[in-house]
Amino acid sequence: MKKQQQKNQIDNPIYPWRRYAVLTLFIAGMGLLAARAVELQVFQHDFLSKKGLRSQTRVVEIPAHRGDILDRSGEPLAISTPVDSIWVDPRKIELTDRAVKGLASLLKMRETDIVKKVETARAKGKGFIYLKRQLTPELAKAVLGLGVRGVGAQREYRRFYPMGEVFGHVVGFTGIDDQGLEGIELAYDDWLRGEPGARRVVREGRGGVIDDVELISPAHPGKPLTLSIDGRIQYLAYRELKAAIKRHKADSGSVVVLDPHTGEVLAMVNQPAFNPNDRHQRKGERTRNRAVTDVFEPGSTAKPFTIAAALEAGGWEANTIVDTGPGHYRVGGYTIKDSKNHGKIDLSEIISQSSNVGASKVALQLEAMDLYAVFERVGFGVSTGSGLPGEVGGVLRNWANWYPADQATLSFGYGFSATTLQLAQAYAVLAADGVRHPVTLVKGQAAVEPERVLSAATARKVRAMMERVIQPSGTGYRAAIEGYRVAGKTGTAKKLVKGVYSEDAYTAVFAGMAPAAAPRLVAVVVIHHPRQGGFYGGEVAAPVFSKIMTRALRFLNVVPDDMLRQPKGAQV
Question: Which of these, 13, 159, 468, 533, is most buried using a 10 Å CB contact count?
Answer without folding.
Answer: 159
